[in-house]
Write a structure and sequence with these properties.
By secondary structure, the protein is mainly alpha-helical. The chain is built from four helices and no strands. The protein is elongated, with a radius of gyration of 16 Å. Pfam families: Sigma70_r2.
């Protein structure tokens, strides 16, 4: 993507974020619609389970919503969304592994 187009795109994303932070839930629905399928594909590759991937995507979007004010605009919004979602997945994998180890020790 050319630098000029990238700047316009990033400015548009910042406008979306500001609208959501101002209470516009319809704009957040647009964000979800834009990113849900590629995010699902990424998480499905990580989990190899459709239901787990769907659940994790939904949870990730809730987390993104609550952390939206922390987006600093230094990088792309899409990269930030992916990072929040992947970090959430890794946290869930660690929790699951920890529970498995605890159950094996009983």
């Amino acid at each position: 993507m050319e630098d000029g187009k990238r700047e316009v795109y990033m400015e548009e994303e910042l406008q979306w974020i500001n609208k959501v932070l101002s209470g516009n839930k319809q704009v957040y629905a647009q964000i979800i619609n834009k990113y849900k399928d590629p995010l699902y594909a990424t998480i499905l590759r990580m989990t190899r389970n459709q239901q787990d991937a769907a659940d994790l995507v939904q949870e990730a979007f809730i987390k993104v919503y609550h952390q939206l004010g922390k987006f600093d605009g230094k990088g792309s919004f899409s990269s930030w969304i992916y990072r929040v979602a992947i970090n959430h997945c890794m946290d869930e994998f660690r929790k699951k592994r920890h529970k498995t180890i605890e159950n094996e020790m009983r």
